Amino acid sequence: MQRPYVIDEMISAKSIAARIESLSREIRDEFSGTNKLVVVGLLRGSFVFIADLVRELDLPVEVDFLEASSYGDGMESSREVRILKDLRGAIEDRDVLVVEDIVDTGFTLHHVTGLLASRNPARMKTIALLDKPSRREVDIQADWIGFSIQDEFVVGYGIDYAQRNRNLAYIGKVRFTGET
Length: 180
Ligand code: IMP
Ligand code: MG
What we know:
alpha/beta; six-stranded mixed β-sheet; 3 helices; 9 strands; about 35% strand; binds magnesium ion
């Protein structure tokens, strides 16, 4: 049984869109001249972000996905990262942008960038929509961050709580109500 909760809006759909516009300008400048940028989305939380981001990116892009799992269905990272689905394409000598929804403890991004770096991409950069610096356990930072947030459990814009609420257009924080 799911504990009852409500969702308080934290970042509006409008602010997300505005932030993505400016981030995509920075990314375009960084990768200008690339003949192909492979945008790697980490499933499933980044699917909305990556969809909006690539449509703002004025570059020749390919989209690929990788699924790593560190969370079960709950709110705590297991700290053990498993690759559940690997990329379809090769990234050797390619420019790569890894797109993550949230950097929390940092275990996922650390593991994934280590794996992809071993395949010798020409250049690899990372972007995370959200960053929770106070939760970090591994020393890693994304090259671009949408919003830095407090230690709150958030949902929406692709991000879930036990697979729910991914379809919200905004990002909200989970607040439990009633008896525990
Ligand atoms: P990390 O390995 O601890 O950095 O965890 C990263 C992953 O945990 C993210 O890709 C999210 O899928 C998940 N995660 C971290 N914080 C939250 C949250 O507040 N809401 C939902 N998922 C989260
Ligand atoms: Mg994730």
